[in-house]
Amino acid sequence: MADQALVDxxxxxxxxxxxxRAELEWLVDHGDLKHFEIGDVVVPVNAxxxxxxxxxxxxxxxHLDRGFxxxxxxxxxxxxxxxxxxxxRLTTPxxxxxxxxxxxxxCVHRQHLPALIQTCPELTSTFxxxxxxxxxxFKANDLQDEKMISLGRLAAGLAHELNNPSSAIERSxxxxxxxxxxxxxxxxxxxxxxxTDAQRAAVSKLKESCLATxxxxxxxxERADRQDAFADWLxxxxxxxxxxxxLADTGxxxxxxxxxxAGLPPAALAASIRxxxxxxxxxxxxxxxxxxxxxxxxxxxSIKRMTYMDRHTVAEAVDIAQGxxxxxxxxxxxxxxxxxxxxxxxxDDLPTVExxxxxxxxxxxxxxDNALDAIPxxxxxxxxxxxxxxGAVVRVSDNGPGIPADIVSRIFDPFFTTKxxxxxxxxxxxxxxxxxxxxxxxxxxxxAPGRTEFRVWLPAAKAR
Length: 464
Description:
alpha+beta, Heat Shock Protein 90
């Protein structure tokens, strides 16, 4: 005989007010009334969820740490229903279900759910609707958390990438003031030198040659040897060897300086060399600023393209190749830290793919970032974009240790991760899979020791 007082408590709950009393009595007959105090764990993380819970009073919550801070992702209070619901595939909670305010809970064991479905159709319908709502809330939280993690990943990558060019600009700007002053004094000394028009023309011609040929890439050892040679030459000709660094960065040879020295008196040679070095140093500083500023401009452009900033969130033609390059650029610091060989190969004749470029870029960021985590120092990552019979296929492969065979089938599951606590959320690949599926595409993985390859197929846009 059902406890009628408990049946009345159930009938007063907002989710059960329309339920037939006979079904509520069935629920009471097959349930256990439990009381929980503050701090109790209703269901611990990784433990099986064996009960349907009707929260008669109190407050309960799940706090989940997805890599940046623990926050509340789900909560229940008086009148809420959760736990193992009819037709639910829930197995374990993502974190402990903690009691935040003491209360009573009616617990119905999983063994009674088949009978519940047959005997209580109204309650079953209510519970199924609640299960759908719960899945929607969790999915929204998952997507928001992964967006925040991706944003953090982009911010970290951008900060690393901006550090070098911004430091170069700051360093060059500080040196420019002294460089301008030195150039002015060197110009005065050069103007006061007793040179013929032909001699001045020869110096000016060498200056133009210095400025035009300074952009020559040299290794550190070659540059050091060249600087030492120029320093020796300057000392031999009575000039300041501090100017060697500025002259060594040009493409002018010592033979050209020998030819200049042969046509100038010693006193005039020192003034001419100083004037040449001051101009070369200024040009180098301004070029460094220009190069660094251009790098910052390119990085900001990459971020704007990746996030589709100032663009409407509607499906449109997506430049997948540019998205892959931008993703690799943002993660460039991580690749350099591991001395990784990261290559991108793209077919020339690619089909048009329509979608949300910002979402697809989130997929590329996840796949490349995971590959960088997997490879050892000096590892390799190969990214290819090819035409496929159905559209386009992106392959991201690495030479890391591979994914163990016993877990490869679970890597797309929500919350599953092989990374250390706090280093991964277990949502990246799940979100990537959802994004690809929304674009009518497919994603899979093939892994063996020494090689893992993720493949993403995206269909070609339908002809309009």
